[in-house]
């Protein structure tokens, strides 16, 4: 059973998946910073400084100046602004990932075209059939 586990771990797919998860976690921090520190302030400027994350409907008694104050007081709130912010963040992150995948695919395609051009430019050797025919002809001459 231990040998089977070693064989499973040694497979390329498992290692690739682990590397992808680790890089994905690191990439998440970069994308979150991009969204939170660069893009959300621009959206705030375009919307007149509206901070969606602090929008809520108080479903209990009392008045609260902010969502944090309402949550601290334990009041039931309908925090629709946090949902809007999460949706905006998702769309931005999806767009960034789309652009990244598109760039990687473009790079892969360019590399594949270069390799195909190099393979086409390389002189082709004789085929197996041509070699067998040469051997046959050489054997006929000796006979």
Question: Which keywords apply here?
Answer:
143 residues, two-stranded antiparallel ribbon, mainly alpha, 5 helices
Please outline what is shown here.
It contains 5 helices and 2 strands. With 143 residues, it is mostly helical. The protein folds into 2 domains: 1-48; 51-143, no CATH class.
Helicity, in percent?
over 70%
For the biggest sheet, the summary is: 2 strands, antiparallel
Radius of gyration: 31 Å
Q: Could you give the count of β-strands?
A: 2
Strand order, biggest sheet?
1-2
* Beta content: under 5%
Average of the residue pLDDT scores: 83
Structural class: mainly alpha
Order of helices and strands: HHEHEHH
Instruction: Indicate the overall shape.
Output: elongated
Segments where pLDDT lies below 50 for 5+ residues?
A: none
- Number of separate domains: 2
User: N- to C-terminal separation?
Assistant: 61 Å
Number of helices: 5
